[in-house]
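Human:
Care to share another protein and its fold?

Assistant:
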Amino acid sequence: VLQPAMKITKMFPSQKKLLKYVPIVSLLFVVQVFLGAYLAHLYADPTQDFVFSQSWLPFNVIRSVHTQLAILWVAVGWIVGGLLIAPWIANKDHKFPWLVDVLWIALLVVAVGSIIGLYMGATGQMRDTWFWLGNEGRELINLGRLWDFGLLIGLVFWFLLIISLIKKASTNNPIVGTIIWSAFGIATLYIAGMMPIHKIQPNFTVDDYYRWWVIHLWVELTFELFAAGTIAFFSVSLGLVSQKVAERIMFFELFLMMLAGTLGVGHHYWWQGLDEYWIAIGGIFSAMEPLPLALMVVEAWKNYREKRAGGGEVNDFTTPFMWITGSVVLNFIGAGVFGMVINTPTISYYSHGTYLIMPHAHTALLGAFGYVSIAFLYMTSRANALANGYIWNDKLSKLSFWSLTIGVLLFTLPTLLIGIEQTKMASEMGYYYTRTREALQGLDGWMWFRILPDAMMILGAVGVFVDLFMKTFMGKKA
């Protein structure tokens, strides 16, 4: 039985304070996409500058900033989502709503400070303080340790804000429990990449083992569970999925994600000296991660179409659900299909570090996490519009969505073709050859083809920023 759709007539004071988060998160996304295009240009022609001099913006430094920005804007977007729904679950607000402002200031300091530190550390301007304030020199998880602590404290503070409200809720069900415990995991599992606390782990294998813990357990386990919990809550609250169906899917999600998140790390174990069967176990469960969320969204859209055809209530949150639907599609392609392919030992052995990894990395991150973060921003903006009676036009959002989605899917074409060719070269001429400029000379055409998908992604990201800014701060009464 579908419950009546939740109607937003007001925003709690703490929710209103989330509006200032919206442009910051979307702006970080825009900067990240622009830096990605900058890196693509330098990779295609390292002898030429692109807008800025390479002496000011070296490739290796900007690549580090590019990857860290992905973590920052996605994580803060999810923080917004948690703080938005907690008052709705509890049907009451925080005793001290200004604490949301404190968290915003802290996250802003961490974001700006860590990016400056990454740049100064990698360019040798922090001789003695590089570890604490600069660049740790690791792949993906690269913040200076002080900024690591800042992010960790911010996440723990966020968890305390959420649980302080949700524990007062009159209802306690698997959906609420999933939100609470996944938020706890998000707040704590990041620490796995901070060991030892005071220095770099001298054993690279041990360091890489726990680094992958963060990527698979922090990101692919707790983040996925939090997404499923919040999307289930919205689906039930908006009358799109019944409580019974949502809870069944949540149990499936819990079972699968616990296996996928923990056993999914296994496809890295073979490279660290463990038995071959870990490749199969890790690959299979990693590929199954998108299934529960896909089932939830399919059920929601099926019921929405039936209600609309029957003249029932219209969903006020179709724009956020458009992004969530896009998330399911890209997640299935990126994490499911591409992830399964590159996890096989033979392919991974020859393709590691080549272009073949890029289709998986970009579609999976943007699909599984980025689009959900954008959906949270649109939920916040839409709630504000409903509470204030603002006109809501989704034309720019749809245009941005399709520009970004088609762009990232088109991006997979040249990167796949270049990656396949590099993998072939590695098997015939040795892995070292794929890392030389000579190996890429015959592939210049496909490298420059990226101008088209990259431009589409830039337009999509800028469109999201402009649309959210206008809807949030320049809304007009109906």
